Amino acid sequence: MTASNQILSAEQMHLAEEALIADGDTVQTLMDRAGKGAADWIWRVSGGRSVTVLCGPGNNGGDGYVIARELQDRGASVKVVAPLEPKTEAARQACEAWGDVPVVDAEGDVFVDCLFGTGLGRPLSDDLKVLLNQLASAHSYRVAVDLPSGIDSDSGELLNDSLPAYNLTLSLGAWKFAHWLMPAMERMGERRLVDIGIEPMRSAAYVAPRPRLAAPTNNAHKYSRGLVAVVAGEMPGAAMLAAGAAQHGGAGYVKVFVPDDGPDIAAPPDIVVEYGSLFEQIRDGRIDAFLIGPGLGEGDDARTRLDWVLACDLPTVCDASALGLLAPSMIEGRESPLIATPHAGELDSLANAFEATGLDRIELATELAEDIEGVLVAKGPDTLIASQGDPLSVMPSATSWLSVAGSGDVLAGLIASRLATGVSARKAAEQGCWLHKEAARRAGPVFSASQLVDSIPGAYGALL
Fold it and tell me: Structure pTM?
């Protein structure tokens, strides 16, 4: 984690700014630094077009006055709308340094929202919401400074309905959770970070960095690269899809375990399908990681298969149906890594099974990671990765074309493959998510899950 990818809560951001002030900065110097950094971006995107800055009464409004001053000094045409007088000393000083007179309304090319930033915990008043939307609609390009007004910085919740969408959001000092969480995230457009000197905070969450994968060593063989065992059930097609992804995720050998009475599977020749008793299959001492859940089913046989796999105490990824069957008693005494990969509905099922109700999504992911003593990947358009004793990480946004049947099976196969190579469970989760994201980018629009699998080799190559 670095200063450029850490994610701070509103409270952590306040503490980080206090630390800078204790080292000799002032609120005014930090505001000046933030405003100038934001002005640099706005100057570039405006390209000589007119700019309107909406300034609120607090320090976010003070940032807006600094932006207006900087842009005017560079020769830009700037108007300021200030429905409320500055209330903080730093904002008053920034307003005086700007030295011009606000207007009541404006229209033009670029709109800059500096009404409210980090720390807002209540909805905008009706008159301010009307003004915000009126100004946003009167400009062709919209920039939010720190956060769009009307958004909770810690949860990403929209505190008002019918808020405008932005083309660019400039986070000041550090990322906030709202920059990477739905529903706020989809309203922000491009996101850029303005550095004001905030130091890394050890306990902070972070945006999962792009990993650097490795090629096999010169003396590698299929077993040294890792053997993934995918445990199939009632619907083996999902297991085969996950197995195909696991083949391309770095592991050297992939097997699919099918019950004796399971259907015949038309498997590719390079995926080994074994029919038989799971009790016998799981005794293969060469297995490095299990994947169970895709196509497993929900009956007693599925529960028994899950119980047997978890009792082996090998690194295991639980996905799909396995998450609805997972119970605290199944993981008692385990020492090997366990990774759970729930979507929103499965996350709720886990919350009920582990009695972790009444929590928000960030709290829930963190709590469940502790409960399973492993890694929890809360997947979706804003994927969270939590692990016992570690800060939370959030995946950078991936393409919305991943919202296709089978995409989760592919992700599970990739994570299991990385786990089998011997990396830590946390790294396996982040690397698998990154491969998934990069493969989707390369697959282009309107792809199927099998086409996503076909794009994984190119994604792996891009991460070498």
Answer: 0.95
